Inverse folding.
């Protein structure tokens, strides 16, 4: 019970510790520092660095990279399919030519 | 200089008017930020950012509220953004350390003591500021504006874009949560 009372007393003291608090004062050179910061922000290289450091820019670069990868992979697939199709056609033509020779031979035997 | 005249001059990019604005409200901005971020260097950084933002966005200021209210709003936004980014960095640092890099976790900073507190109350106030860190953002903002800046409920509601009863409710909940945090802390100390 005594402990509870002690804890409660400390809680109240802590809550009252802000009574009569003074205002913290800023650095006397604050204005000079703000001016310097503004000068830096107006520097074109700083502007570019800030633009590049934006998450939206990073996301756009990643999306562009993925799109380029997808495009290249798709192109390669299409080229491969075209090559396969051409090879199949050539093979078919070769086989057809063989089989037509065979049919000629068969008809000659008759 | 009356506020309307100051705003007109700021919109024209008048350096003297900007200097006047900084010197007039720097302590207000710094004190509010310090109450929220609880670190003097971080609070100075936030204060600089607030005035840079004010300088860059003065054209969007319609004069519907007082300059001080507008600056309070920027301060609160910038301070909360700072705290969120700090939390993200801390989390990232933790994940980074899990992957075996030779990066030690940031050691907990020393207890924050507000410079405006009288020396005999510094120790108890440190416990209060520690408990303040655990409050949800809105409650913390309402508490800091009321207790550190001495704003009335109406002014706080204008800064936070809330109604007066909403601010009163936030303060009530803040007090309950602080009491709970502090009594847990003191009970542990007594054991």
């Amino acid at each position: 019970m005594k402990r509870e009372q002690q804890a409660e007393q400390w809680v109240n003291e802590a809550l009252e510790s802000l009574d009569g608090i003074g205002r913290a004062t800023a650095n006397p050179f604050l204005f000079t520092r703000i001016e310097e910061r503004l000068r830096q922000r107006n520097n074109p290289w700083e502007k570019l660095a800030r633009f590049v450091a934006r998450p939206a820019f990073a996301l756009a670069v990643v999306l562009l990279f993925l799109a380029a990868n997808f495009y290249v992979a798709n192109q390669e697939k299409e080229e491969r399919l075209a090559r396969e199709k051409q090879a199949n056609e050539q093979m078919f033509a070769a086989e057809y030519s063989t089989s037509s020779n065979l049919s000629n031979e068969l008809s000659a035997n008759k | 200089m009356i506020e309307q005249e100051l705003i007109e001059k700021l919109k024209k990019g008048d350096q003297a008017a900007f200097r006047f604005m900084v010197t007039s409200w720097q302590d207000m901005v710094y004190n509010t930020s310090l109450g929220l971020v609880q670190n003097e260097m971080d609070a100075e950084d936030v204060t600089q950012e607030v005035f840079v933002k004010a300088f860059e966005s003065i054209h969007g200021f319609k004069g519907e509220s007082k300059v001080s209210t507008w600056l309070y709003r920027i301060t609160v936004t910038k301070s909360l953004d700072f705290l969120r980014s700090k939390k993200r960095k801390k989390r990232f640092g933790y994940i980074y350390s899990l992957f075996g890099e030779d990066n030690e976790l940031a050691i907990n900073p020393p207890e924050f003591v507000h410079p405006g507190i009288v020396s005999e109350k510094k120790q108890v106030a440190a416990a209060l500021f520690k408990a303040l860190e655990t409050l949800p953002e809105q409650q913390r903002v309402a508490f800091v504006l009321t207790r550190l800046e001495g704003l009335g409920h109406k002014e706080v509601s204008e800064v936070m874009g809330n109604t007066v009863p909403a601010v009163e409710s936030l303060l009530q909940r803040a007090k309950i949560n602080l009491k709970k945090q502090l009594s847990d802390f003191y009970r542990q100390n007594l054991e």
